[in-house]
Structure formats: C-alpha cells, structure tokens
Write a structure and sequence with these properties.
Blueprint: H1 3-16, E1 20-27, H2 31-41, H3 46-54, H4 60-78, E2 89-107, E3 113-129
Antiparallel strand pairs: 1-3, 2-3
Helix pairs in contact: 3-4
Length: 133
C-alpha cells in the first residue's frame, strides 16, 4: 500500500471512531426496493424507526430492522450500555448502494432466452443524537 493511500485510510478510520454505524453488504434485494424502506426511516427517532420497520409490509424492512438493531447495539457498546431512550437518537443517514448482480437466463419462446438480472445492494446506516456536538 502506498503512503498516501495508507494515510487516507487512517484518517477515515479516525473519523469513523466518533460515529455509530452498521453496514450490510450483498443484501439480495434490489437497491430500488431497499431505498423505499430507507426513505421511510431517514431522519426519524430510532425507536420510532424500529416500530415503522416492524409493522411495514415490505420484505426489505425485515433486513433494515436487523441493521438498525445492529447500529443501536454498536452505539450501546461504545457508550458503556447507556439507554438509547435518554439520548434522543435519530437515524442520521441511510445510504443504499448497488452491489454485484447475478446474471441468469430464462427460456423464452422459439428457442430464445431472456436475461434475468438478480440485483443486490450494500446499506450503510448511521445513528446520532439530536444535539449538535
């Protein structure tokens, strides 16, 4: 690894030490469907977001709920088990990016084949307190 690349990686690590987040990689749901769920909880109180995801009918909300619980447990681990209810936590950022795509073929009439693209995504979720530091 080059010197500049190493310094950049170390600066990113230092910046992430003060933030609370969780990352889900290669989730087998299309990014478009996951963004619909991400838009429902962006900027919302964490406990309210958990309720929204729990009672949502979308399948992507199950995976997003698990990710939010992971971010919340990361926050609790860094804050020595403090209660999240007392700190006004909100979902600061939810970022959904496209991941790899599985390409498959489905038989079609007259000897043809149609391409099926099975999409997946990466989701990054940040939580933070409402108070500005």
């Amino acid at each position: 690894m080059g010197a500049r690349k190493k310094l950049r990686a170390e600066s990113i690590k230092e910046a992430n030490k003060g933030q609370y987040f969780a990352i889900m990689r290669n989730c087998p749901t299309s990014p478009r469907k996951m963004r619909l769920v991400a838009d429902m909880i962006r900027g919302v109180d964490v406990l309210k977001a958990l309720d929204i995801l729990k009672f949502s009918s979308k399948e992507a909300s199950i995976k997003m709920e698990k990710l939010l619980k992971s971010a919340l447990s990361n926050w609790e681990a860094k804050n020595d088990g403090k209660r999240p209810e007392e700190h006004n936590l909100i979902v600061k950022t939810v970022q959904v990016d496209a991941a790899g795509m599985l390409k498959r073929y489905r038989p079609a009439p007259q000897g043809r084949a149609h391409r099926i693209r099975k999409r997946s995504n990466h989701v990054t979720l940040y939580i933070d307190s409402k108070e500005i530091r």
